């Protein structure tokens, strides 16, 4: 059981997953660790999500489960989400609608997006189409998983593509010799399948290439067997095969600090290393430069990070309100009216639109209302004061959440449902405690996190009463 690891969390996760076994380590990882790494097919792959907020773990279901359980122990605000459309899963789907560039396909428990360029046939609304998930998406992004009508047996170094005449379908840039090498490798590629060599293949030995191809051939033969039968039209949409599992792991502020500690056991690591890198690609590059220079601060340098990358007074930030089930709701964007860098705190002001009521305050939302919110890095709660156009306080809403992270263009956290409200008449009450308990019962929130949230809400209620 081995895994490959890539992305901004690679050093910490390579150390954390040492007992699982890390293979095909990148050059920087090999230089950083005083140990030997194996090469060859990995049972699972860990890669940083495109927004740098967490990782995706894909591969053999048992290995994925073991890796995810280890990652979940990292910090209190580590959340995991099993993907209902994992990479490599094959569905008999139904086209829900077509758009200018592709079609939305109903897969049953979820849906996906089939770009027309990935479809071998013309599709229109109501059609049944066999598709495979080629690029799953974490639940906190708005995009659907990308589909294709091409069928692949995925591997880390070698992928087999069904329905091709040639022996080799693709090779990495700079490694055309792999096409010739394929002809002398011992595994026989099944008829009607072709090899697409991945980037990881470029650095492998002949033995490792043979092992990678053998693993891909085995996966293709297994997949071919699963695809043999048809699906009754009344059963569409239906999942036909799911050789791999995909689980998404979201890291919060506490988890990123814990990963800093793990990384520090391996190499010099600035306080807030993963927190800064998660903020933006420019900030990520700056972290590498600072660590190369040495003389690192002992505490997270919020003031310096905010000054160089934001947020700062005059900026606009989105309030990214995560939910325990993985969904992400943007509560809107607001203007940063004040940034106290010493306190790691910003004040955000939003002008509200008329219509509806303020949640739990039972006060109508009117034109001209203003919401003033204070966010402080690392805090398990934040207050929002709603005022009318004439300045009258209409109520205060205190959200209880995982530790806040103030990124350059957004404030990020996972909402824990439990909140405290203070009405205009001074009455203070807790709300939605039952929803938090339901999340615990559903396995979305741990008992420890729920206990912390309850303690935070109790202290806030006492302070405001």
What's the quick description here?
With about 475 residues, this protein is α+β, with helices and mostly antiparallel strands.
Name the features.
single chain; 465 residues; alpha+beta; OB fold (Dihydrolipoamide Acetyltransferase, E2P); FomD barrel-like fold; 3 domains; 7-stranded mixed barrel; 6-stranded antiparallel β-sheet
Describe the secondary-structure layout.
Elements: E1 3-6, H1 10-16, H2 27-32, E2 44-48, E3 54-59, H3 61-72, E4 78-82, E5 90-98, E6 102-106, E7 111-115, E8 128-135, E9 146-148, E10 152-153, E11 158-162, E12 168-170, H4 177-182, E13 193-197, H5 206-226, E14 238-241, E15 245-251, H6 253-264, H7 273-277, H8 281-293, H9 302-309, E16 316-322, E17 328-340, E18 345-351, E19 357-358, E20 363-364, E21 370-376, E22 381-387, E23 393-401, E24 405-406, E25 410-423, E26 428-431, H10 433-441, H11 447-464
Parallel strand pairs: 1-2, 12-13, 16-25
Antiparallel strand pairs: 2-3, 3-15, 4-15, 5-6, 5-8, 5-14, 6-7, 8-9, 10-11, 11-13, 16-17, 17-18, 18-21, 19-20, 21-22, 22-23, 23-25, 24-25, 25-26
Write up this protein.
β5 (90-98) and β6 (102-106) form a beta hairpin. This protein has 465 residues and is an alpha+beta fold. The strands form 5 sheets. A 7-stranded mixed barrel has the order 16-17-18-21-22-23-25. Strands 5, 6, 7, 8, 9 and 14 form a 6-stranded antiparallel sheet that branches. The protein has a 5-stranded mixed sheet with strand order 1-2-3-15-4. It starts with a strand and ends with a helix. It contains 11 helices and 26 strands. The protein has 3 domains: 3-82 and 246-264; 90-244, Nucleic acid-binding proteins (OB fold (Dihydrolipoamide Acetyltransferase, E2P), Beta Barrel), CATH 2.40.50; 301-464, FomD-like (FomD barrel-like fold, Beta Barrel). It has helices at 10-16, 27-32, 61-72, 177-182, 206-226, 253-264, 273-277, 281-293, 302-309, 433-441, 447-464; strands at 3-6, 44-48, 54-59, 78-82, 90-98, 102-106, 111-115, 128-135, 146-148, 152-153, 158-162, 168-170, 193-197, 238-241, 245-251, 316-322, 328-340, 345-351, 357-358, 363-364, 370-376, 381-387, 393-401, 405-406, 410-423, 428-431. The mean pLDDT is 93.
